[in-house]
Amino acid sequence: RAEIVDAVRRLVADRRTAAPVDEASFSRYLYTAGLPDPDLLIRTSGEMRISNFMLWQLAYTELWITDTLWPDFRRRHLFQAVGDFQGRERRFGRVD
Length: 96
Fold this sequence. Notes:
It is built from three helices and two strands. It is α+β, with helices and mostly antiparallel strands. Strands 1-2 form a two-stranded parallel ribbon. The longest helix is centred in the first third of the chain and has 13 residues, at about 1-15.
């Protein structure tokens, strides 16, 4: 939330025209400006929430949740997450 509020404040302060704000222009004010949105978020420790983490950027991100704690997360867990991700059908909000 803080990132979104900060982006709005900076956008308002920078507005020199009355041009409409769209997703692309708003995204330029986020902390991750210039970086692509994540395709996959791996959430460890079985938590079923994103904890206020990259709220805007995770809109179409696939989530993979494991009960494994972060200190115990190993390469095999990463391969499992990526393998699962590769088998998913990504719709990016599209409804069939």
